[in-house]
Amino acid sequence: MRIFLVGFMGCGKSSIGERLAKKLNYTFVDLDSRLEELLGMTVSDVFAQHGEEHFRQMEKKVLHETFNLRNTVIATGGGTPCYFDNMEQMKNYGVTVYLKMSPLSLSYRLKYARKKRPLVKELKGNDLEQFVDQKLREREPVYMQSHVIIKGESAKPDQIISLLFG
């Protein structure tokens, strides 16, 4: 089984994904980290040097490589499901779990995040909140196609396990 965690940046896909994989004795893959290893540069550098379109093409390639893995939890990038046919493919090759959070919660997390994210690194205050609100409205119809939707603010690995395995 493959479990794809989807949701907006900052919703906890990586941190919950690592804990979930450990509890299930699965392998954990963070798509952004895998992409950084492959390209030898950070996601921010890829955006800056090659643009978002190149990043999305490479992201799709790395995503497709996960379709050969077994017993794996995959933390996708926030935009991963929203490009190409990525969401449809993830649903075909595994179970998708949307870590749903409010724009306010996401803005708060992103404001204080240690990890700098290329799409929001220059935004502060109301600009950050407006960006998150607008981008989430664009992306949420795709996220909502997930097999499982869980409240991200309080999501726990055991809760996901019980939803997936009864």
Sequence stretches where pLDDT stays below 50 over 5 or more residues: none
The secondary structure category is alpha/beta
Terminal-residue CA separation = 15 Å
Strands in their spatial order, largest beta sheet: 2-3-1-4-5
How do the helices and strands line up, and which of them pair or pack?
Elements (H helix, E strand, L loop, with lengths): L1 E5 L6 H12 L2 E4 H9 L3 H24 L5 E4 L10 H8 L1 E6 L2 H9 L13 H19 L4 E4 L5 H9 L1
Parallel strand pairs: 1-3, 1-4, 2-3, 4-5
Walk me through the structure.
With 166 residues, the chain is α/β, with parallel strands linked by helices. It has one domain: P-loop containing nucleotide triphosphate hydrolases (Rossmann fold, 3-Layer(aba) Sandwich), CATH 3.40.50.300. Helix content is 54%, strand content 14%. The protein is built from 7 helices and 5 strands, in the order E-H-E-H-H-E-H-E-H-H-E-H. It has a 5-stranded parallel sheet, with helices on both faces. Helix 5 crosses helix 6 (125-143). The chain is globular. The two termini are 15 Å apart. 34% of the residues are buried.
